[in-house]
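Friendly challenge for the regulars: who can give me the structure tokens for this chain first? No prize, just bragging rights.
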Amino acid sequence: MIEVTTVSINKELSAREFFQREHEIHHSPYEKELGFFAAVRAGDIDTVNELYTPLAVEGYGRLSKDDVRNVKYHLIITIAMITRFCIEGGMDSETAYTISDIFINKADECRTQEQLSQLHREMIMEYTKRMKQIHSGEAYSKNVLMCIDKIYDNIYKGVRVQSIAESLGLTPQYLSKLFRQETGMTISEYIMSRRIQAAENMLKYSDYSSVDIGNYLNFSSHSHFISCFKKHTGLTPKQYRERFFRLNWKERSEPMITNKK
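First reply, four minutes later:
Bragging rights claimed.
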């Protein structure tokens, strides 16, 4: 166990500050970081592109001796910061945190600085474009957002249009029409897409069998689960899991290539 005390922290702080002064190493200006995050929150794509700085550059501090892990840590910190800025800017918190989870999971799979840099850019643009939509008045209405929240909350329990509509004080017909107008899909299609997405994550990151996953997500039978999963992904659950582990194993087996400075 590594013991951390105020004395040990002060000692290392003093040593690092001296080293950074001697070698003229500086962190990125705080105001610049705030300006960048504010641009993402505002959905200002032009300013985001102007202020964008790749992760693998000086000014971000050294969080690990390993080059790839160092960039990965900074990416996770950036995701956390942008998530909170976007929530403050009006993004639904469940949506913001779920997007955060998705990109952190993707970061965990990256094995090179190049992969992390590409993911960093994709993450920033994903949040920025969504914030632009929110500020342009193209975001979903309150009833549709509440419908989506209820789907997320009950995805593992089973959820029906009738029960969602009743909880919102709306008729199923009106809610269905509103949902399709704003999202481009029916509520049932959206529910199925979220169930399949949940199944994909469970196949990737858990040891549950295909039968258990299908039962957990309330499919009527294992054959129904396989049919729906294949319709959305082009693969059976077994094929999907095997492909993911094969690709993951290939990446882990390849020699790690880093840009040593």
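Residues 27-135 form one domain. Residues 25-30, 255-261 have pLDDT under 50 and may be disordered. Your move, everyone else.
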